[in-house]
Amino acid sequence: MLSIHQLSVDIAGVQVLRQISASLSAGTTVAVVGRNGAGKTTLLRSIMGLLPVTSGDINLEGQQLLGSPAHHRARMGIGYAPEDRIIFPTLSVEENLALPCEVLGLSAKEVKERQEAVLPVVPQLKDMLQRSGAALSGGQGKMVALGRALMVGQRLVLLDEPLQGLAPVLAQQYVEAIGRLRQWQPALCVVITESNAGLLSDIPDQTWLLERGALTQASKTYFSI
């Protein structure tokens, strides 16, 4: 499904990712664990096309991603929930969910069908649909960002530090939503970055440890460095 080969990324002359190689098969959930500054966010942004890559390759089911802008990758079925969630305050929650689909040119019928499929996965969104984005708490914003990523992420979903700053109750609800993804779309690939792997319970099938921009160790995985 997702193949990364010898990926290196430099930012402002500093090497952040160092020749990372990894493979992720369909239906797999991976946790990328590392300290702050290890390169977790850079890895997800590189996959999503939000950062230029210095060298290496990224392929999704044999399709080369490098050179494709982020909106093309969204069109290919990649959803992304950034760490800072980025909710549009002047739009309702329902409009925030629909926006990426509308940008991709999906019909109103398709957008509604996707929303109806996503709500059982993140049921907390149902009561917030008409609420303004400006009225959301930080935790609620994270839930909306998850739902928005699922609206376009039909093949691969990237979740950046989703549990950071969440109250314990909301963190548990978020983890439960991730667990429901398998029933929603069994072939969906999910990559989650997290500083504390213990917060994800037994959700991940694989764990990648990222240290100083390199994958140094793993459990239940099959990738090479």
Describe this structure in words.
- The chain is an alpha/beta fold and 225 residues long.
- The protein has a single domain, classed as Rossmann fold, CATH 3.40.50.
- 31% of the residues lie in helices and 27% in strands.
- It is built from 6 helices and 10 strands, in the order E-E-E-H-E-E-H-E-H-H-H-E-H-E-E-E.
- Strands 6-7-8-3-9-10 form a 6-stranded mixed beta sheet, with helices on both faces.
- Helix 3 crosses helix 4 and helix 4 packs across helix 5.
- The chain is globular and about 45 Å long.
- The two termini are 18 Å apart.
- The C terminus is likely disordered.
Tally of distinct domains:
1
Across the major sheet, the strand order is 6-7-8-3-9-10
Report mean pLDDT, rounded to a whole number: 90
CATH level-four homologous superfamily name: P-loop containing nucleotide triphosphate hydrolases
CATH class: Alpha Beta
Output the helix-strand order.
Answer: EEEHEEHEHHHEHEEE
Summary tags:
225 residues; Rossmann fold; four-stranded antiparallel β-sheet; disordered C terminus
Map the helices and strands.
Layout: E1 2-11, E2 14-24, E3 29-33, H1 40-48, E4 55-60, E5 63-64, H2 70-75, E6 78-81, H3 93-103, H4 108-118, H5 138-152, E7 156-160, H6 168-184, E8 189-194, E9 206-211, E10 214-219
Parallel strand pairs: 3-8, 3-9, 6-7, 7-8
Antiparallel strand pairs: 1-2, 1-4, 4-5, 9-10
Helix pairs in contact: 3-4, 3-5, 4-5
Summary of the model, kept short:
The protein is α/β, with parallel strands linked by helices and 225 residues long. The protein has helices at residues 40-48, 70-75, 93-103, 108-118, 138-152, 168-184; strands spanning 2-11, 14-24, 29-33, 55-60, 63-64, 78-81, 156-160, 189-194, 206-211, 214-219. It has one domain (27-53, 67-219): P-loop containing nucleotide triphosphate hydrolases (Rossmann fold).
